[in-house]
């Protein structure tokens, strides 16, 4: 983890334009604010390109996608690509329906994502590897490093697979992260908010490997720290501690976990 990446984000408060799902908008906005960046949610096709052009990073998350939102995502993604603004694609539930699968195909034909981030079931689907999924959740098992590598190679991008173990692959490197807490799997939008923090970390001038690792490692440490509070009984009591922990110093989080 490179703590300077987090410090730079907090100094610059980059604006992250989100085209994300209805389930997680408020959680994502509050989590990103706590981390130290600035969220804006704008999904009308009429304004998507303008908003993306003024942002420092763009998050495309298809969790509750509609046909009009797909058009907006393509406009926002193209506008971001034109200005070299980083784009994170989260293909939420892509294996669940042909509408989602077609939408992601269209997005990947028209937009170059800086990072594709998803759970194992989502990334496996992108390279036609059979994997058990349930709605937006991944419930299968298999070689997660190989899947992440293949997504990175096939789409010539950085791929991040999340779960108990996170895997980051660029064309050259594979990095594994084991920070995190099982309670995150009980928080809807835990992956979606990570995509938002990741977009913020991609706005610095550091290497993509460092940016990606910093985002996933910090996020996991914040979860471990939040879960260690005595009053945490389950996800409901965990969430406020987690939002708070996202504002903390990376070094402090490392040392604070017992
Ligand atoms: N069993 C686990 N142990 C530790 N960390 C976990 C575990 N499961 C998930 N995580 C962490 O939770 C975060 C979200 O990952 P996950 O794979 O659950 O996302 P997702 O399926 O896209 O979630 P959502 O669709 O709800 O947004 C990541 O930081 C990941 O490391
Ligand atoms: C539960 C759910 N359904 C569509 S998006 C979403 C949020 C987690 O991905």
TrEMBL record:
Cofactor(s) listed in the protein's UniProt record: Mg(2+)
A molecular-function term among this protein's GO annotations: magnesium ion binding
SUPFAM superfamilies: Ribokinase-like
Biological processes, Gene Ontology terms: thiamine biosynthetic process; thiamine diphosphate biosynthetic process
Positions bound to ATP: 117, 162
Superkingdom of the source species: Bacteria
Keyword line: ATP-binding, Kinase, Magnesium, Metal-binding, Nucleotide-binding, Thiamine biosynthesis, Transferase
EC number(s) stated in the UniProt entry for this protein: 2.7.1.50
Binding site for substrate: 41, 189
Family of this protein: Belongs to the Thz kinase family.
Role summary: Catalyzes the phosphorylation of the hydroxyl group of 4-methyl-5-beta-hydroxyethylthiazole (THZ).
Protein name according to UniProt: Hydroxyethylthiazole kinase
Organism expressing this protein natively: Oceanobacillus halophilus
Lineage: Bacteria, Bacillati, Bacillota, Bacilli, Bacillales
Gene that this polypeptide is encoded by: thiM
